[in-house]
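Attaching the record inline, Q. Sequence:
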Amino acid sequence: MKKDRIGNKKKWFENQFLMAFLRLMRLVPYELRNNLMGWLMRTILGKVTGYRKRTKINLDLIYPNIADTIKQKISDNSLDNAGRTFLENMYPAQFQAKTKNIELWGEGLVELEHAHASGRPIMFYSGHFGNHEAFRLALYKRGIKVGGLIRPMSNTYFNYHYQKTLLIEGKSGPVFEPGVQGTLGFYKALKKGATLVLLIDIAVRDGEYINFLGMPARTSLTAATFALKSDALFLPYFSMRNPNRKSFSVEIGKPIEHSDPLTMTRAASKTLEDRITADPGNWFWIHRRWKYQQTNP
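Structure, as predicted:
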C-alpha cells in the first residue's frame, strides 16, 4: 500500500510538471513552439527520456550495416517528429487552424470514398508514422469522422487531459479503450458502419510473430479479424510529415483483399514496412517494437 501511495504521488507530481510545461508552451507562438519541441526531443529530452538510446538500439538491430551518420540522421528526424507530434496533439484546436491544405492521395482514395458513400464499414490500419491526427483532420474535411482504439497513458492524472485531446474538438469518431468493453464497443461500432483505425506496429505479448523490417515481431491480428467479421474495407494510410516539418501528406493505400487474419496482417505489415523503408525518419523508432523476442524461430 505504501508503495502504491508513493507511486501515485510521483504520478501526481509528474502530471503537475507536464501541465505547467504545456501552459508555458501555450504562450510561445505556434511555429516557434513546435521548432523548440523538436529541438528539445533531438537533444536534452531525447537523452533524459532514454528515447535517443532506444532509437539507436532499434536502428542498430534493423540496419546493422549502414553508416552511423545515416542512422544519426534517421534518429534525429524520428525524435524531432515525436516531439512536434506531442505538442501538436496537445493543442488540437491550434493544430487544426494551422494545418491547412493537407495533400490526400493514393491508390485507395476512390475506394475509400465509395465505401463511405455506401455506408460500408472502413477498417483503417497504420503505424506510428508522422502525425496520425493529420490523417483524421484530412478525412474530417471530407466529411469522414475517424475513431479508434487507444491505449491510455500510464500516468492516470495526465491521461485525463490526453483523452480529451483525442476527441479533436468534436471532430473525432467514437474512441474506445482496450479491454473487453472497449473492444466490444469498437466491434459494434464498426459493424454499424463506422470508420475506425488500429495501429498494427505495437508489440503485443500474445500476438503472432510476423517479420517486420527483417526481424520477427509480435503482431496483433485484431484489425484484420474485425475487418473480416464486419465486411469492412481494410485500408492502409500513412500520415507523413513533409520535409519542411510543418505540413503533411496523407497517403491512402490500396485495400487489402479479405482472406484470413494472418495472411491479411502479413500483407498489412508489409505495406507499413515498405513505407518505413522509403521514409525511415517519419516512423517512431522510440517504440520497443521487437521487445518480445522469438525463442524458437
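The longest strand covers residues 233-241. Residues 2-282 form one domain.

More tomorrow.
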